[in-house]
Amino acid sequence: MRETSTLSVLVDGLRRDKRRGPYAGHREYEHTAWAVHEEAGRLLDAGQAALVAPELRKAVERITTALMYLDDSAGMAGDVLRELTGMYARALTAAPPKNPKTLASWIAKTVFDGPGWPDIRLADFAAALGDVGQAHLAETVDAPAADVSLKDSWTTVNGVRHLREQLAEVSGDTDRYVAVLAQFLTGPD
C-alpha cells in the first residue's frame, strides 16, 4: 500500500493553478508527470493494475486540464499525457472495470467535452470496454450525431466521426468499417 501512496502523492503534484503563468514551474511539472509514468509503470509491472488505474485516470485528467494553462510548445507534457493515456488503457486491460459503461462514458466525455486531448485510441481500451462498454459507447456517440442542433459543432462532428471509425475498426467487421469511412468522404483521395 505504501507504493501506491507514493503514486498518489506524485499524482497530487499534477494539480496546476490556472492563475500561474504558462511558464512558471513548467519544467518541474513535466518532471513530476514523468515520475508518475515511471512509478505507475513499476507498479503495473508488479501486478498492481487495480490500484494504479484510478491514479492514472486522475493523472490523465489533471494533465489534460493543465495543458490548457501551461505552455507546451515543446510538446513534452503532451508526450507524457499520450504515454499515461496508453498506460491507463493497459492498467484497465489488466484489471477491467466493474462497470465498462462508466469507462465508455468517460471516453465519450473526454472526446466531446474535452479540449481536444488526449487522443483516445479505442483499440487500446477495447478489451477493458468489452462488448457492453463498446455498445454503450456506440449509443453515446449516436445521441450527438442525431441532435440537429449539434450538426454545426466542429468538435461534435469530428468527435462522432473519430469514435464511429474507431468503434467500427475494433469491431473487426470490415464491411461496417468501410461503411463508416464512406460516410465521411471529403474528397476523391
Describe the structure.
The protein has 189 residues and is mainly alpha-helical. Helix 2 runs antiparallel to helix 3, helix 2 (26-45) runs parallel beside helix 4 (76-94) and helix 3 (49-66) packs antiparallel against helix 4 (76-94). It is globular. 71% of the residues lie in helices and 0% in strands. The mean pLDDT is 89. The protein is built from eight helices and no strands.
Give the overall pLDDT as a whole number.
89
**Record field, number of beta strands:** 0
Q: Structural class from helices and strands?
A: mainly alpha
- Tell me the radius of gyration: 18 Å
The major pleated sheet works out as: none
Q: How many DSSP helices? A: 8
> What is the helix/strand order?
HHHHHHHH
Shape: globular
Q: What is the CA-CA span between the terminal residues?
A: 54 Å
What portion of residues belong to β-strands?
under 5%
Number of domains: 2
Low-confidence stretches: none
